[in-house]
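Ticket #4471: structure output looks truncated?

Reporter: J.K.
Steps to reproduce: submitted the chain below (519 residues) through the standard prediction queue, then opened the result file.
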Amino acid sequence: MPEIEGYYKNTPGSITFVKDWAASASDWIPMTAEEKAKVKQMNLPRPRCPNIPPVKHVDELLPSLDAVARRPYSGGLWPAWDLKKGEKVLVKMSNWHHPMVIDAVRKILAQYETDFHIEIQDKGPAPQWQGHDEAEYYLDRTKELAEWIDSWEVMDREGKWDKVIQGYGGPILRERKIKIQRMPFIVPEAVVSPCHQLPAEVLVAIDEWVWKRIRACKRVHITDPEGTDLRYTNHDAYWNDTREVFRRDHVEAHYSANVPYGETYLPGHIWGRPPFMIPQEDGEGVVKGTMNHIAPYPRMEMTIKNSVITDIKGGGIFGEKLRLLAQNTAGTQYSGFNAPGIMQWWEASIGTSPKIHRPRENYANGFNCGLYERMRAGVIHIGFGTIISADTERADAKAGKLVGHWHVHLYFPTYVAEDVDGEDVTIIEHGRLKALDSPEVREIAAKYGDPDELLREDWVPAIPGLNMVGDYNEHYARDPYRYTMMELDLCRDYHPLFQKLVSGGPEGGEPESGCCSSR
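Returned output as attached by the reporter:
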């Protein structure tokens, strides 16, 4: 199925206007025979998809929201509202949130006897995204996130609200009188996910295990069966003398009014590389993938040298739009970057929650998109462009420069932290976050139940030629959007059959037993 226009129309004169749509849509990078041979040697995890029945009544959503309401406050991506009787809470949602979810949030706020107000923004009809829509979306989204931070600063000074619950991505204010928390609840299926029942102590232990080892290593090597092979040096210059936090001058250059946010990791979203540039930048290699924060796109390849993206091949319409953005900014010097141009690599963030899954119904619609699934344990998202809501990005925007950033998801990455006290430590192996197997994390999880179950991923994408039968190029990489939507429909409507179809592995064979098989 050829790529079609998405939410953003292909308008002549726009910066992302694609002149030859058909040619660009058919421009993708097939996996080579050598790459396919390497994949066959990998023991990738079998596909897994949770069997979540359709939600019929708002009360089914309340147990998850109650667990989130009781979690101690955290400034991260996993929701932790820590609701208190009598506190003043402003909740910002939109008509892109499912009405049942809005009703459930209202019920839980009332149950905790908060003094709350839910503000519903009318954003118009929720769009059905195409993967290439991310190019324009993150030009618009960058401005919106900056406006959010400015509004939180005003609310903090005014003192009208104790908490604001809004959004599920980007920076937030830390260590202020006002507390900012997340609203990742878009559709009922995502609300009833077991991820929201995971105890905060377990989530913190996972985050700390990962962060400790990233801070200590000297070099990093990231690979993925879709083709990514990327290295960088974890320079001392990124860190303070003890490597506990990022170096203060770098933090103040990027988050001068929000130092506590900028100096360390974001819970549920661990920086797999420091989210800023230094003169010694030496990130080098290739990034290949088929997914961003919005929706799938045909396989794309990016070459990186000294943390600068020097070449973009394939990617269908998304790849062509990125090339147009690169051409438009090739002579622009951005604040904090060592070389001109917007296409620079600054992010390799790691999700840490094992129970996150890709919602199946109405996927790639409104806020129900690829952004949510990046939080699953072991998934890495590569980020490139200007640094989100940093002082440098905001200054460049005020100077009239084009600002925004974009993504490639890695679902089966291997992340090796080299030379941690003389040893190489595998932090992720083929998408399995090794913190989930660590004795210290398992000991904490055992306080709350069976650690095997609590720390087992509920969702592993089924990708032909990688972890299930089929040809990666013909059945997936050429048109991953069509395949993904079909896969989600099968998983939702024919779950036992779906698990039988996908559980035989890349060479076929008997399905494995487990939580999601039919055995």
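Triage note (M.O.): checked the attachment and the full token line is present. The chain has a mean pLDDT of 94.
Status: closed, working as intended.
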